[in-house]
Amino acid sequence: MATIYEVSKLAGVSLATVSRVMNNNANVSDATRKKVTAAMDELGYRPNSIAQSLASNCSNSVGLLVSELHGPFYGPMMSGIENTFRNQKKHLIIAAGHSNEEREKQGIEFLISRNCDGLILHVEAVSDDYLIKLSKSQVPFVLINRFISELSDRCIILNNIKGGYLATKHVLEQGHKQIAYISGPLWKKDAQDRLEGHKKALAEYGLPFDEQLLYQGDFMEASGFTGLKTLYQHAKPFSAVICANDEMATGAMASARELGLTLPDQLSIMGYDNVFFTRHVYPPLSTINYPINEMGKMAADWVLSHVYQKQTAPLQTVFEPELVVRQSITTNPQ
Amino acid sequence: MATIYEVSKLAGVSLATVSRVMNNNANVSDATRKKVTAAMDELGYRPNSIAQSLASNCSNSVGLLVSELHGPFYGPMMSGIENTFRNQKKHLIIAAGHSNEEREKQGIEFLISRNCDGLILHVEAVSDDYLIKLSKSQVPFVLINRFISELSDRCIILNNIKGGYLATKHVLEQGHKQIAYISGPLWKKDAQDRLEGHKKALAEYGLPFDEQLLYQGDFMEASGFTGLKTLYQHAKPFSAVICANDEMATGAMASARELGLTLPDQLSIMGYDNVFFTRHVYPPLSTINYPINEMGKMAADWVLSHVYQKQTAPLQTVFEPELVVRQSITTNPQ
DNA sequence: ACATAAAATGTAAGCGCTTACATTTATAAC
DNA sequence: GTTATAAATGTAAGCGCTTACATTTTATGT
């Protein structure tokens, strides 16, 4: 592989000049610029990005930590991020944290040790304090789907209270009066917020919130399954169940069928996230849209702006959810 | 950030010695090793991986090109790969090719320019010739889900003929006699192979293959939708349709319902890939398992072995599909 | 105690770039 | 034609490591 040295020799200029044309430095005459690019072409020269990084103290790489590389939620997020960065010649180093404190910390360590210029973090298990401490170290980072008030300017989040509110309001509007709720783990802020929105809608319709109709799940499919079963067997009757995410809604669907209920006639189910497979389940699931792809892009823009001083579209930290009506909610239940 | 120089000064040894303890070189006495690690701890030293890469001519990064970062197929593949590499302190740089020739080439260029030591490629649009030429350049790569005979030792593939065979055989065993087929784009080898397996099973049961019952799709959901509609309106009657992947099967399901058919009673549907949401559709889709996660791991092992000379489990290039029976196929259709 | 080999450590060059600073060349003003 | 100023180019010192080779220390055999 040709080096800058060989290019400079062929072009008959100094190393510095070659470097200047590479970096589009203004102070190069057209004539020499042409000589240099010609020499580059002739040699098939490609700059060594490692050497560039070492000399410029900028690796042009940004680290991304997500809980899982698979699963319906992270894919669209990564897509949005990758796209933005590739256009800017930055590259993405990806690691998985598996929603586990130790592994999330390891992942962050790993990315830092890889000289990332900035980090995009979707972490769940690591503590607020850890992140606040981290924010005082060298490497800048932005948080997706997590709010820490001390770090509020770098938290890209969804308005989950509103989302929870919209979901329940829709179900209420269809005439349901007995509504069960399967929440996420309530130590998580987003699970809390969604539930809070639910309560708010209930209150608005003059309905009391009933603890008996609440089941605390963990955002995973299985907990939707057992959640519905538990509610069905122990709680008072209900005509609709609202799930704090689509995975649990899916579990609840399976559970409902196992209980012999026909959907949606005998039970309406509402999801949250608008993960792509919600269109494909049967009946197609009504849910709340989580614009995760856009939020990924915004996180990338944040990095572009704060780390690389690039001009970007105005940064937005809180996104708004939207109701997506499909066919899992009946009107006027008996 | 402390450098190796400061560590060496604190420990009272030379740079080389510090480097040796970092790299676990055997020729370091226990006493000095201790001194050095103590100094490292005291300074909170972290080696600069960029400098290491430049000096050692090894970036410890491997590039991964997939068609999309989202979608049900690539997630599990990336997961398998990331996991293997992180344990080995290698890192993954990810780019998307979008099944488009230009973008795939760009992606490969991008990864190479990022000094990847090796590449894992899931490419669809780029030509065999291009890849053969690429194989003669510096950077080693392995191919997932693509077979090129000149490069056969670095192609990690599924036995798609067998998969196609298993799918059709299962449907035949349930008593179906009129079977439609929605294929992938037939310029793709995997689409061809799956269809070939289908024909083989038909032949084994003494049934002729009927061109009229074939629709050529493009592996995307929409083509499953229009495919079924087209077949239904123009072809002779059939009691089952086999789709060359799950996405198209999903489209076919939606289409069937729109045609007023109840599933699976009036139409059996078979998928391929065993993408995770196939459990969630209704009726749960019978399909062929594609062990993409394992294949991803194998690709990572290939790189570990060929690029980094690591000892790995024996390499396997062709994987076997398996039938997954769920509830989308009826028995003894009328 | 000595010679000899093996183990431990040090020296210094170099990986391929960037960039501050110095120098040369072109341009403008008089 | 000078001189002042700006533009273009060159020089050389790093960036933080690895590693071939040289040197010193330690262990081994007699």
Q: Tags for this entry?
A:
homodimer, 3 domains, 334 residues, Rossmann fold, 14% strand, four-stranded parallel beta sheet, 434 Repressor (Amino-terminal Domain), six-stranded parallel beta sheet, alpha/beta, DNA-binding, 12 strands, elongated
Radius of gyration of chain A: 26 Å
CATH class placement of the largest domain in chain A: Alpha Beta
Tally of individual helices of chain A: 12
Q: Considering the protein shown, what is the CATH homologous superfamily of the largest domain in chain A?
A: Response regulator
Number of folding domains of chain A?
3
Main-sheet strand order of chain A equals 2-1-3-4-5-11
Helix content of chain A: 40-55%
Q: How many E-type strands of chain A?
A: 12
Main sheet characteristics of chain A: 6 strands, parallel
CATH architectural group of the largest domain in chain A: 3-Layer(aba) Sandwich
Query: What multimeric state do the chains show?
Result: homodimer
Based on helices, strands and strand pairing, what is the structural class of chain A? alpha/beta
Account of the protein in words:
Chains A, B: GO terms for molecular function: DNA-binding transcription factor activity; transcription cis-regulatory region binding. Chains A, B: It holds the Pfam family Peripla_BP_3. Chains A, B: Residues 2-56 form the HTH lacI-type domain. The structure is a homodimer of 334-residue chains. With 334 residues, chain A is α/β, with parallel strands linked by helices. Chain A folds into 3 domains: 4-47, lambda repressor-like DNA-binding domains (434 Repressor (Amino-terminal Domain)), CATH 1.10.260.40; 60-158 and 292-320, Rossmann fold (3-Layer(aba) Sandwich); 160-290, Response regulator (Rossmann fold). Helices cover 43% and strands 14% of the residues of chain A. Chain A is built from 12 helices and 12 strands. A 6-stranded parallel β-sheet of chain A has the order 2-1-3-4-5-11, sandwiched between helices. A 4-stranded parallel β-sheet of chain A has the order 7-6-8-9, sandwiched between helices. Chains A and B meet through helix 4, helix 5, strand 2, helix 6 and helix 11 of A and helix 4, helix 5, strand 2, helix 6 and helix 11 of B. Chain A binds a DNA duplex (30 and 30 nucleotides) through residues 3-5, 13-20, 22-23, 26-29, 32, 47-57.
